[in-house]
Amino acid sequence: MRQLKLIWDFRGPDALKIAEHHEIHLKEYINAQHISLNITGFESVNELHAIAFMVVVEDEMKPVRDALKPHRGQVYQQ
Asked: Per-residue pLDDT tens for 37-67?
């Protein structure tokens, strides 16, 4: 089954700190909702842009998307 990477974009001088903090909430959501995958992270794109992400299987994407409203998504490549 395909895995999808849901992505939240943060911009500004505090983007990396915000993305890092957002990942904490993604992990809490995974535990509370018993999501089958436990893949999360955050990355700096540049000094004013960072992302937080979580990976879900395709069958779980719609409820997670509707609850957490990611900015975008893509097929996850390990």
From this structure: 999 999 999 999 999 999 999 999 999 999 9
- The β-bridge relationship of strands 49-57 and 3-11 is antiparallel
Helix (H) or strand (E) holding 56: strand 49-57
pLDDT in tens, 22-39: 999 999 999 999 999 999
Residues contacting 3, CB < 8 A, separation 6+: 37, 39, 55, 56, 57, 58, 75, 76
Q: How far apart are CA 67 and CA 63, in angstroms?
A: 6
Task: Output the pTM of the full model.
Answer: 0.95
| CATH number reported for the structural domain that contains residue 41 in this entry | 3.30.70
Domain count, the chain: 1
From CA 72, how far away is CA 65, in angstroms rounded?
9
